[in-house]
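Usage

Read records sequentially. Each one opens with the input sequence:
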Amino acid sequence: MSKTIPIALTIAGSDSGGGAGIQADLKTFSALGVYGASVITALTAQNTLGVTGIHDTPPDFITAQLDAVFSDLDIRAVKIGMVSRPAAILSIVQALTRYHPSHVVLDPVMVATSGDRLLAPEAIELLRARLIPSASVITPNLPEAAVLLDTVPARSEAEIEAQGKALLALGCPAVLIKGGHGEGPESVDFLITQQAALRLPAPRDKTKNTHGTGCSLSSAIAAGLAKGAPLETAVRDAKAWVSAAIAAADDLQVGKGHGPIHHFHALYRGA
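and closes with the structure output:
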């Protein structure tokens, strides 16, 4: 007897090097048993060494992609990544208003692993005012949380929790602040809601091959939500999966710079 596969949608930029963005999201969905659809907000000329060019998708074509996908597919969860221009943000907000997806995971991508800036400064305020209130959960790292709050990155767990609560005030019901940019033997994420602050530690791997980590974590959360998991379970499962993908990243040996994490670590090792 056939079983309907859950469907998740990624709205993000394309990474020509295959390690982040749309490519990482679709690999994540596939690895976790979810059918992936995509809306491309920008093309990047990118590899493991950096970003050399960005070509933004016209807003009307972003809208056309969104309408095509939502009008046909049963989208259970949406992941939003790179949206570099205000017009792109407005196109997405309008579509979310039209179609009301049950779960929206917003990864406020601002800077690539290589350090290249991916978000226009004039888009930040619109991200705060319009897109964050449309999200079910946002997943900033420490520098991104600081930019959204116009402050300095948190240096302690107490400061992380305080910044998470400040981000809740922007209108989203949950915030996952990622601790990968911190220091120490553990990488500690915090899932913060109005009810609680949940500490989620994992061993910090000493690898340079972390390209696409943030994209993959947010899409893994979306995959869990698409399969019907509650938010805390989806976040815990996503973090465990990404941690294993980082631990296996050096097995791939892709590129000369910051290589990708190993999305199919379980499949490859099983083979």
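Summary fields computed downstream for this record:
- The domain at 7-264 is CATH 3.40.1190.20 (UDP-N-acetylmuramoyl-L-alanine:D-glutamate ligase).
- Strands lie at 7-15, 35-47, 50-56, 75-80, 104-106, 137-138, 174-177, 186-193, 197-203.
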